[in-house]
Amino acid sequence: MSKVKLMSEILANKIAAGEVVEKTMNVVKELVENSIDAGSSEIIVELLDSGVKKITVSDDGIGMDEEDATLAFSRHATSKLFDVEDLFNIESLGFRGEALPSIASVSHIRLKTSDGIKGTVVEIDGGKIEKIERSDLQKGTTITVSDLFYNTPVRLKYLKNLYTELANIVEYLNKMALSYPDIKFRLINNEKVLLETDGSSDLLKVVYQIYGADIAKKMVEVEAENDDYAISGYISYPEVYKSNRNAITTLVNNRVIRNNELNKMIVEAYHTYIPKDKFPIIVLNIFVDPILIDINIHPTKMDIKFSKMEELKNLINEMIRKRLRQLLLIPKASVRTASAVREVSKPLVNAFYKEEIEVPEVAYEEVVLDLQTVAEDMASYDTLEEEKPRIKKMVPKGIVHMTYIVAENEDGMFIIDQHAAAERINYEKYLKAMREETREVIAPLIPISIDMAPNEYIIAREHMDLFASFGIKLEEFGSNTFIVREHPTWFKEGYEKASLMKILELVATKEEFSKEKFIEKTAITLACRMSIKANDYINMEEMEYLLDTLRACENPFTCPHGRPTIITYTKYDLEKMFKRAMD
Ligand code: ZN
Ligand code: ZN
User: Fold this and answer.
1) How far is the CA of 419 from the centre of ligand 2 (A)?
2) How far apart are the CA of 523 and the centre of ligand 1, in A?
């Protein structure tokens, strides 16, 4: 190649680099995916300053011969460019080929590889090959990329701060570890180990290695299938959750994808089980015939269109909701003993840097030791689930702070939040009442009149049919007033007018509107308003009634806002705390 042509190629690569390599994560991604393509069983990513200074990726894959090693960083070496449609049929991740030359054009690269016959070292500076020489034999390939963007000072500012760069890389590698439980991954930044998986093919172990023991213990297996899809994976108990969606991982045929519609469906399945704006920890692998999907690949993420989306969404929703209903979801009051403290030692890395910047220092040996405990605990969870536990009858013993009912049964001691419990009971009652086809109504003796703001009145008037379908018969009266001729019987006595006003108000909030959503919202709002509050006096009989009704709920464990209704100290917890039982 002539010198001129070479120079213009380097320039083209530099320009492309801005698009392809805007984050250090993209470089890591490119190199890691090459390692996966090379059939590696171990991949080590070592960073200096989040990769801005140096990124080293080593693997034990098949390696390259001298020719491949020399061509790997040239634009025309796109031997691995496959038809995108093939992606889910072939083993290779290789749909790239453009990125390596771009990376080479804006950094120093040292590639050391061996195909088992001959070892090669190639050094490249700003896209120009400076050195090719023989090296000793090693298994696989080690690529070091240093001083990213050293020759394009303008682009450097596009790299966000080191912290964001690192968070992106950790998240990416977490997802790769979840996609490839059979590959050992190790991520190190400035000599700190941020991720370490053992390649044992055990998905739950990877969950443990990423999210830590506390979360791994609170994961349960799920499985579902229909004619087109088969789903398997793990979902978290509602009592552990995150403040962002990062811990929701969906794979399709073992590849990480991002599909907002599916994520939304997963979060919705947890509706009323966890607080609003909190998100479960999920790993789901969806197996599907590649014919049924349409892939759209961006440089940084993979989005997929499913041809039977509604069916898939329903399958996932039912699978999760069914599983949650089977679980005994009473959070245990934490009992801290020396051994328990060790168990809750922090995870190797908290993937959610936004919540916690400090990377906890945990010795590796310690983590390995803990794994035993996790496995044992998990076994006991499994047997629990088989018995489909419900709460046994609880006898109230009294109340503290005018809010928390203390109760017992043979399993242990329970503390119940009287408002949250009443709210759950009423919520389910109102939902049922509003969904029912036939309903009992009464005509108030003294007509109830409701005045509204003019704009709200107009919206409410458009929904007279909707109200009628819930048993609310309205009559227009004067300019901005309705007279209520009939209303359902399930309103709390004495609060009929307040309930009606609330319902009319809700319909007037001009959000995305569907009947089911309206019912849901109304049930939550009225349940909160009409339930006994904290500091409301209730007697023993009322407590007993409350506890019995709570036990009969479809989900007795949380209020419709996702707060817990009940917590427990098991008999064993108590014995342990008072040192009657030693372990
Ligand atoms: Zn409330
Ligand atoms: Zn609530």
Assistant:
1) 8
2) 12
pTM of the entire structure?
0.65
- At 148 the pLDDT is 85
Q: How far apart are CA 542 and CA 421, in angstroms?
A: 12
For residue 477, the cross-strand partners are 481
Å from CA of 272 to ligand 2 middle: 9
| Residue 290, pLDDT score | 85
Q: Which of 454, 437, 422, 428 is nearest to 538 (CA)?
A: 422
The answer to whether 508 and 456 are in contact (CB under 8 A) is yes
Interval between CA 413 and ligand 1 midpoint (Å): 24
Q: What is the pLDDT of residues 324-373, one digit of tens each?
A: 888 776 777 654 443 333 333 333 333 333 333 333 332 222 222 233 33
Q: Is 193 left (phi over 0), alpha (psi -120 to 50) or beta?
A: beta
According to DSSP, residue 332 is labeled B
CA of 268 to the centre of ligand 2 (A): 17
Alpha carbon distance 273, 564 (integer Å): 8
Q: How many CB atoms lie within 10 A of CB 342?
A: 13
Mean pLDDT (the chain) is 80
Q: In sequence order, what are the residues at sequence separation of 6 or more whose Cβ sits closer than 8 angstroms to the Cβ of residue 522?
A: 430, 434, 502, 503, 506
Cα of 420 to ligand 2 centre, how many Å?
Answer: 5
- Map tokens 């197996």 to a residue: 287
Contact (CB, 8 A) for 113 and 63: yes
Q: Which residues, in sequence order, are CB contacts of 542 under 8 Å at separation 6+? A: none
**Distance in Å, CA 529 to ligand 1 centroid:** 7
